[in-house]
Amino acid sequence: xxxxxxxxxxxxxxxxxxxxxxxxRGGLRRSVLGLTDEQxxxxxxxxxxxxxxxxxxxxxxxxxxxxxxxxxxxxxxxxEETWSEGFVLTGAETVAGVLAFWDQVAQETxxxxxxxxxxxDTFPLPPAPWFPKDGAVSMRWLMLHLVEEMARxxxxxxxxxxxxxxxxxxxxxxEERGQAG
Length: 181
Prior knowledge:
Layout: H1 13-31, H2 37-40, H3 51-70, H4 95-115, E1 122-124, E2 136-138, H5 139-165, H6 169-176
Antiparallel strand pairs: 1-2
Helix pairs in contact: 1-4, 1-5, 3-4, 3-5
């Protein structure tokens, strides 16, 4: 990661976790910096991944985990039939629109995590072959998982972006900050 992440205050675990999630969000957001929707949709390797698809996927994954933690239904829940649509822009979707949606999700996640009484609070996992039967995870686990999920895909995004136009994560950080690369 080409940026340094600080806690909001010394010993502030919650603030540190929120800042690490935001740092990974930033890596993914920067991956589409300066690209058209068409460029962001390109798949420059044998993989089916594109930058716009990764951004959409991670935004929807964050929403899904947030809704599980809130124990509310996910208004964008994917099914087996619609799973692949979570990796491509469909219909009138644009990169700007997906980023705006993700900004709303991120704000809601941050507000929710700041308000939970304890990072030790838990929520149940839904029945699924990859989850333990009657499993539950803590809010701390949720935040660490979001860092893991976003970091994995930020790495994918770094490779895709560099394959598209040679721009590296370091150059995109400089561009975002208004510095010459």
